[in-house]
Amino acid sequence: MWIPQQYQTLNGMMASRVPNSLHDCDSTTNYFERYFAQKAASVLDLDIPKEWDKDFFLYCLIMFGYVVVTDTDKFGIVPQAAAVNGIGLYYQPTRFTVQNSLVQKSGVLGVDGVLIRMTPDYMGIYDMIHQYAYKMALIYSAIDQSLINSRLAWAVAAKNKNAAQTLKAAFDKISRGEAGVIIDKKILMSEENDSPIVELFNRNPQDNYITDMLLRDAQTLETRFNREVGIPDITENKGERLTAQEAAEANSGANAKVTLWVQNINESFDQLADLYGIRCTAKVRNLTEGVQDDESGRNTDGDADE
């Protein structure tokens, strides 16, 4: 499923780049946007009516920041992506409009529909996803460049066209993995002083190899994203195994945001129950269930294996 995003948000995100002409890795950025969006969605465990599309519901919460549940003539009570407007006493939206090929409805929030929000500012987390995705795309484009620059490159001066064709054929065979390639010795020697004419274009390819550092940077960036969305991850800059206390401390800050998101969703679900009588709940998914301790063989939840 592609990310359901409105053009206002897309324009705002794309136009905020400095310089805004830097679009050399947009396809990779799009890939990591989908990747990080799915990771963020994996944290939330929603109990909603089975008739509702849970993927659509989650992506609206993550990307838009909210979804409106309203009663429609054709489909009954359903969640819909909507535009909100109006300003209440505390600057909260007061009205909504649903406009698509199947549903057209406007109304007052709390009367004609319920706004299910994830974040306090009604903005979702697409901006955070985009920032991490764009930085990850830059790292991976640098990895590609590092791999290209670290290849062993040759520059060969050929005496004539026939010699050039012979050398090209030899290099093709070498690149295909042939163990031995035989050519005329005279092709590799200068006619003036009988010296070799083959020169290395890149004599020290290892000097350009920074792929290992870039991969570590990518792991660090993903670890930080995991902590942002509440996914347990304690691998950043830790060369040895963490104790249980260290692991708990490392992940304590990661739960702050997701706890707030779940709180906001459940408060919205309470309003949904009051208006339509539909009971829904949200909780943080246990992503460490079944993961075992490497040394003791115990489960992370403390239960010993049989």
Helix content: 40-55%
Mean pLDDT: 80
User: Tell me about the biggest sheet?
Assistant: 3 strands, antiparallel
Q: How many β strands by DSSP?
A: 10
Which shape, going by the Cα principal axes? Answer: elongated
Would you identify the regions where 5 or more consecutive residues have pLDDT less than 50?
Answer: 293-306
Q: Alpha-carbon distance between the termini?
A: 40 Å
Determine the number of helices (DSSP H or I, runs of at least 4 residues): 8
Q: Structural class of the helix and strand makeup?
A: alpha+beta
The tally of structural domains comes to 2
Strand line-up across the major sheet: 3-2-7
β-sheet strand percentage: 5-15%
Radius of gyration: 29 Å
Order of helices and strands: HHEHEEEEEEHEHEHHHE
What does this protein look like?
- The chain is of the alpha+beta class and 306 residues long.
- The chain has 2 domains: 1-65 and 118-150 and 206-306, no CATH class; 154-201, no CATH class.
- Helices cover 42% and strands 14% of the residues.
- It is built from 8 helices and 10 strands.
- The protein has a 3-stranded antiparallel beta sheet. Strands 4-5-6 form a 3-stranded antiparallel beta sheet, with no helix packed on it.
- β5 (95-99) and β6 form a beta hairpin.
- The protein is elongated.
- The model is unreliable at 293-306 (pLDDT under 50).
